[in-house]
Amino acid sequence: MDIRIRKLVNFEEDLCWEGEREAVPPLKQFAVAAVVRNPWAGRGYVDDLKPEIRAFAPVLGKLLTDRIIALAGGGDRIEAYGKAAMAGLGCELEHASALIHTLHFGNFYREAVGAKSYLGFTNTRGPANTQIQIPLMDKNDTGRRSHYLTVQFSIADAPADDELVIAFGGATGGRPHHRIGDRYQDLAELGADVSNPASL
Q1: pLDDT tens track of the chain, all 200 residues?
Q2: What is the pTM for the complete model shown?
Q3: What string of H, E and C letters represents the secondary structure of the chain?
Q4: What CATH architecture is 5-199?
């Protein structure tokens, strides 16, 4: 059982100015994506997705992790991270979700950057050239709002109707000149349990 990868895409940008001030150092944001043929395409409703998940998610997880670590210049350079999947118009949204919402995919990236938090995500459907949005958060602290970022890019010819786009995103820091505090400050002001962010 082999997965057909039509193309691999890298995206990167350096944000040098924000809010009329220079960003020192510039914020680097980047993403890597694989455009793959949907392994469930043309098969009608497939009840058990696990065989393909176990076969393909680790392949994509390792491949994309290796690429994004190389793009960033090392796992320690990545402070914020996330993942995304986009299904072509002829695919179930569940098919895109299946390949990213498994530890067989995300743990490669999580371990490579030494993360403690979960990977933020989007799973969407659209035609070729639809914007892919990858929400990012601090790899160790989900309440650190400075690192709430979104990597945005599109692929002119993907996804085709029978394709999936699978992607990882990352950033070397938080928003330049961030100044809105974090979740824990809000919890303290509201008299909630700061040690339990789920209390509100």
Answers
A1: 689 999 999 999 999 999 999 999 999 999 999 999 999 999 999 999 999 999 999 999 999 999 999 999 999 999 999 999 999 999 999 999 999 999 999 999 999 999 999 999 999 999 999 999 999 999 999 999 999 999 999 999 999 999 999 999 999 999 999 999 888 888 888 888 777 655 55
A2: 0.93
A3: CCCCEEEEEEEEEEEEEECCEEEEEEEEEEEEEEEEECCCCCCCCCCCCHHHHHHHHHHHHHHHHHHHHHHHCCHHHCCEEEEEEEECCCCCHHHHHHHHCCHHHHHHHHHHCCCCCCCEEEEEECCCCCCEEEEEEECCCCCCHHHCEEEEECECCECCCCEEEEEEEEECCCCCCCCCCCHHHHHHHCCCCCCCHHHC
A4: 2-Layer Sandwich (3.30)
**Residue 116 in tokens:** 């403690």
